[in-house]
């Protein structure tokens, strides 16, 4: 007989901003008192369940192993209203309040899962990574730690108007050097000329910018290389750290033990598993 999954999952509906929003809730079967909460924000044209399969359910496994409540929010029409000025999607046309929705999800999880509101973590892929960046700007102090996959900071001319100022927050970025959608070297991002997302910083400059926010500079930077992965760190006692994991030859994906067959997003990798790197950086292992 097959062993039961070490977690339960369900799609939940929540009324917010005058519309019915949905999210996938993953709850470990063994749940500690006052557990932490992790958000995973999906990429463009995905939803919560697609994101789970896209990452080989590795984040579900991390949640179960570490006793973490995990929420995969669903974007409106499969997109989040993120930090970029250039976002030609219905979520922007409708002025969807995904920051407010995220806060509502935290409140929901406090009420229904007893999570500790002082331990709210978030990660996101592509459009979802840009949503995490928006939360850092527009909901400063909400996130305990943050991570992005295949997403870099918008250039100043492509940062959404009216955002707030981020607070120092530990930050992890994972990016493929062969990403043809969000280029590792920076520049205009997008799937094609009809779906451009404006100019973004390079992965290196983006990570360095977050290090600056955290009070870190060039003197706090170090680099090491392990099996085709370059790991840049900015660290100093008393300051929130920043890490950039650059995966040689990887495309527009989240590193996971799942075979990727796509000429659009490019190759995957077996060098690292993003969920494991995240758990280590977040201090859960």
- Overall shape: it is globular
In N-to-C order, the SSE pattern is EEEHHEHHEHEEEEHEEEH
What is the averaged pLDDT score? 95
What portion of residues belong to β-strands?
25-35%
Using DSSP, what is the number of strands?
Answer: 12
CATH class: Alpha Beta
Radius of gyration: 18 Å
- The number of helices is 7
Report the span from N to C terminus. Answer: 30 Å
Query: Judging by the overall fold, what is the CATH architecture?
Result: 3-Layer(aba) Sandwich
Largest beta sheet, briefly? Answer: 10 strands, mixed
Order of strands in the sheet with most strands: 1-2-4-3-5-6-7-12-11-10
CATH topology assignment = Rossmann fold
Helix content range: 10-25%
Domains (count)? 1
GO molecular function: hydrolase activity
Pfam families: Abhydrolase_2
Keywords: Signal
Organism: Corynebacterium testudinoris
Structure overview:
With 285 residues, the chain is α/β, with parallel strands linked by helices. It is globular and about 45 Å long. A hairpin with a 2-residue loop joins strand 10 and strand 11. The protein is built from 7 helices and 12 strands. It has helices at 48-54, 58-66, 90-93, 98-113, 127-138, 203-213, 274-281; strands at 7-16, 19-28, 37-41, 69-73, 120-125, 145-149, 171-176, 187-190, 196-200, 221-226, 229-234, 242-247.
């Amino acid at each position: 007989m097959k062993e039961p999954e070490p977690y339960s999952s369900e799609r939940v509906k929540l009324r917010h901003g005058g519309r019915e929003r949905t999210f996938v809730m993953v709850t470990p079967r063994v749940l500690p008192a006052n557990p932490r909460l992790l958000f995973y924000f999906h990429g463009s044209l995905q939803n919560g369940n697609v994101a789970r399969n896209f990452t080989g359910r590795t984040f579900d496994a991390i949640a179960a192993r570490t006793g973490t409540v995990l929420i995969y929010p669903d974007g409106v029409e499969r997109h989040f209203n993120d930090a970029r000025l250039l976002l030609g999607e219905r979520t922007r046309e409708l002025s969807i309040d995904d920051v407010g929705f995220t806060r509502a999800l935290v409140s929901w999880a406090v009420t229904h899962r007893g999570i500790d509101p002082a331990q709210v973590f978030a990660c996101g892929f592509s459009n979802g990574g840009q949503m995490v960046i928006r939360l850092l700007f527009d909901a400063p102090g909400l996130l305990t730690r943050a991570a992005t996959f295949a997403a870099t900071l918008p250039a100043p001319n492509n940062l959404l108007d009216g955002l707030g100022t981020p607070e120092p927050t530990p930050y992890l970025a994972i990016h493929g050097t062969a990403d043809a959608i969000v280029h590792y070297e920076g520049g205009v991002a997008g799937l094609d000329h009809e779906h451009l997302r404006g100019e973004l910083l390079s992965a290196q400059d983006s990570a360095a910018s977050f290090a600056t926010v955290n009070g870190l500079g060039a003197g706090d930077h170090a680099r090491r290389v392990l099996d085709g992965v370059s790991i840049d760190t900015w660290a100093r006692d008393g300051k929130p750290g920043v890490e950039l994991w650059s995966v040689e030859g990887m495309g527009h994906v989240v590193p996971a033990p799942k075979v990727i067959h796509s000429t659009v997003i490019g190759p995957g990798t077996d060098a690292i598993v993003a969920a494991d790197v995240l758990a280590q950086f977040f201090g859960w292992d």
